Amino acid sequence: MATKLTWLGHGSWLIETGATSILLDPFLNDSPTCPIKSTEVSPDFILLSHGHFDHVSDVAEIANRTAAQVIAPYEVAIWFQKEHDVENTAEMNVGGGAEFSFGHLRMTNAIHSSCMPDGSYGGQPAGFVLTLSDGKIYFACDTALFGDMRQLATLEIDLAVLPIGDRFTMGPDDALEAVKWINPQRVAPAHYNTWPLIEQDASAWAERVERETQAKAIVVNPGEKFSL
Question: Would the pTM of this model clear 0.85, i.e. be above it?
Answer without folding.
Answer: yes
